[in-house]
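Researcher: Next entry in the queue.
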Amino acid sequence: MTRGPRWLLYLATTSVVVTFAKLHATRVGHYDITDSGRLPWLVAYVVALLLAAYGAGLPDLAGRRGSRSALPASFAATAGAAAAISILQVVDGAAHLPRFVVFASAAVLVPVYATTALLANSGRHRSEERERVLVVAAEDEAETLIDELGRTPERAALVVGAFDAMAARRDYPAAQPLINQVRRTRATVVVLDLDAQAEPEVIAQAAELHAAGIRVRTLEGFYDEWLGKLPLGELERLSLMFDIQEVHNAVYGRLKRLVDFAAGIAAVIVLGLLIPVVAVLNRFGNNGPLFFTQPRTGKQGEAFQIWKFRTMVPSSSAAGTWTDTDDPRITPVGKWLRRTHIDEIPQAINLLRGDLSLVGPRPEQPHYVEDLCEKIPFYALRHTVRPGLTGWAQVKYPYGGSDFDAMEKLQFEFFYLRHQNLWLDARIVVRTIRGVLGRSGR
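Model: Structure for this entry, 442 residues:
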């Protein structure tokens, strides 16, 4: 959907920076850009531009927002990267990367980045037109699917029609309502819920459509492929029907723990640098203990103490209620810590101890877990793996603290359990970085 524009952004960034660097080296400075003191700064600037573009959401800006925000997002990305590399050179005390290269590259890349965003948006619309979906499901399930496609799908698609299993089988074989509806709407994908799958007349028509090149998916299969989650109505039925790599693949489990330990060491170094800064901020705008700990439910249901920088008034940090984004208990400094995700850094301690993994379902407080296990019989399956500092549900679903949000996030967590592997873990980490850079705080 955006692969072409994304590669264009990568190539354009590298080409523009290298071109201006060579131009300056040959026409102005008469130096070798591959010199050991200059090349690392050249690479660093390219990386800074790419990270800034990613943090600004480029080139994946969606819908009308993509058209309106392409130019501002492009300017913010290039200006941010130029400012960052300039500040680093001031701190270093040497201008290994000339200002001409920094600012000329940034200026040229603004329209280039905006163009990639517009191309990505155009490609998304073309993808939606190619993926025309006819849903055979109960009305509420069809409405939910349409709503889900309007949020953050993994693949773009357009629902062109929906009706239930009774309508799809009516008067068969004299009439073929499902086949006729596919022809009328020019659908390319047919989605069947459980009721539709139980109707021989519907299956017979679906088989004929499949033979004619129309893709047929179960509701669960469509959610998995297009939405990156499993539908709530299917969770209990599917709860034991797939392998979980952390449980069933010892090699993956060992590699994942090795990555967690390495990430924990790096995070502990960052934590050591941040403690004095946060302590000073606490003194003036968040007076009280620097850290707070709270019991959370971990792997196999075992409790552990999670570490964070305190973000609420001391008397309510551990209160037994869900936390909202505008919770009045959050202090001004705490709000900034949450928005920048700095409050999460002390969980480096949990990473090193093995309480947390870098990626996994987010750990909840034991009393919430007990309550949710009573309401959702299969909820405890999420505790077969080590909980995570970040997770698929965190990058796919906006922050929320309620039973409804827990149910929504569980659908993403089951997707993660079903597809758990190092590649998916890496994708989640990269998307988390984008969220932090884009300051999509909680």
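Model: The mean pLDDT is 86.
Researcher: Noted, moving on.
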